[in-house]
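User: structure tokens for this one?
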Amino acid sequence: MGQISLQYIYLFIISIPLLLAMVMFAYTRLAKVYSGVWAWGIANFTFTVAFVLFSVADRLGTFGSLVLPNSLLVLALFAIVIGYNQFFGYPVPFARLAALWAMYTAAQLALVYLYPSLVLRIVLISVVLATSLLWMAIWLWRLPQPTYRRINRFSASIMIFLVALSAVRLVITITHPPTTLVSDERAMLIMLAAVLLNIGLAFSTVLLNSTRQSMELATAYNGLELANAELTHRMDHMDMLTQAGERFALATNSDQIFAPLLTMVKANLGAEFTAICTKATNGGHPGILASSAKLNRAQTSIINQHKAQLQASLKSGQAFFLQQPAAAILPLGANGGTSPVALWFQQAPGQELDENHKQTLLAVCNQARLAMEKAAYHATVEEQLNLLTTIQTASQVILTETELRQIFQTVLNQLRQTYNYPYIAIFSIQGEQLALEASIGYDPIRHLLGDKKNTGVFGRCLRTQKAQFVPNVDEDPDFVRLLPDVRSEVCVPVVTNKRAIGGLMIESTEARPLGQKDLDLLTQLATPVGIAIENARLHQEVLDLALTDPLTNLHNRRSFTELLQRELTRARRYTQPFAVLIMDVDDFKKINDTLGHPVGDDCLIYVADLLRQVFRASDSIARYGGDEFAVILPNITQSDALAIISRFLHTSMHCDLPESLQGKRVTFSIGMAAYPQHGSTQEELVRAADQAELNAKQHGKNKVCVPGEC
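Assistant:
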């Protein structure tokens, strides 16, 4: 009866792993399982088969009911090991496990058939099971994955409990050897414990699989959140790049690029501060052209401490990303070339520069670089346009204006308006004198500029006939300082036919330093200025020919008429008197007829020289026609005019005559009209003087007459 009851107990025990194997099979078919779960399913199935074989006891023979089920139990343990290794991604020692299983099976066969001993067989089983379980428990306990730690240690605890049971059975077997397997109640307890192990491991399998599913779902959800956050960041960065492109598209100079760049980068990328830096000069600290806000001492110190990296970035044109502190140095010059400026991006404390920040910074700086290239091109085009406009204006003024100083003043005004030069001057050389034709900024010292012909940088320019550019006047020994704030100077000679006929000079302050472009500008302006000076000279020569008598170099009648009208206007304005003389060489026709026209010409030249000798420098002397001469005496009364005329007649009587006129006597009949006594208009005065001159002839010649009196 007791044996039948024991059989039912065995059947009940083996039904549990059988049911568990079915449940595990259904679970693997219905749920998502991971690598290694298949091995745990095989382990459950192997346990079930082993217990079925144990239940039939000796009915299948010694091998079928003892050796084979014990080998299957060890194989089930090894399947559990394989499942754990695959589940956690570790390499599976298939060869080692197969060798151990083969050795164990061989040992069992030897103890059953060659050396039959129930005690030794139980000892072998207990030692192998205890060792295997202890090794698995230690391995599970030490697995590093924190998420599965509690589940693994639960499984390890079950295995340690079974190790303890195996040790107890080993001790009891040695002290109280069993007679048969079926009557060994301790074996039934071990089987029950193994079933519990199977249940616990199945529970662990499901729990591990479910936990991993939950983790993957959580990871996927976190990945979605991160992807969403990343997408949001990228959209923000794309918006910033779009905004930067729109702002930079309208920029025409670097200031219109730097300000929005600093503001947008700081606001959108979470910077502590941003700055536009230039290279250090003369071993000093880097220059800071602009910043997102006023930098404090600590922030400036950070930039100074990384001067070497900044210099390397500017020199190579390559971006530098720093870790301590988290910062970036991004050159804004041409790719792969030397850059004049760089963007310093200082990340906020506690934050790092991730790859997205780096890529966004590179992209926005590339946009800024392209905008700067466009602005530089725009500035170059604008400079060329200004230059062409200035030259065109100068050329147009030269063609339309005849007054030299008006031409030059218009050119200087154009230069001042376009280029903001503080001090500009144009000179012309008139004989040995340097004439200031036009200037801007030199009003207090205009009287000192005439000394520049032989001194200073401008004098060197005229002597060498070469343009002079002095970036720092304090370093040029020839520089003569007339203004205290001058820091740079450009001088260009105006040369015609290898002869300097004038020059242009620009002096500037530290706030507006001069450069090569200014030298090029003046060099190109020198040509139209030279044309203007030469045209003025030719115009003056033509004018002189039109208004000067070629024989005597006195004013001709046309010039006399203009001068008389000018003097009449002045006398009316200031209520001043003046006198007009018209004189005739007595018997001049006889000289021509008897001595010839060349002697007559000598006589006229002699009279012209005599007039220049006696009359004042302010008096205007003209050859009125033939042997007639006219003189305008400004700001003089009638009596004073008669005194000068008397001195002239006296001088003519005692003056040495030309050799061709030796033995001859040259006398004059002179008529004088005074303003306003004898006329208030040009016609009245000339008519009165001419009538007085006729009266002088009629009254014996060699005398002076006024209207109504000789």
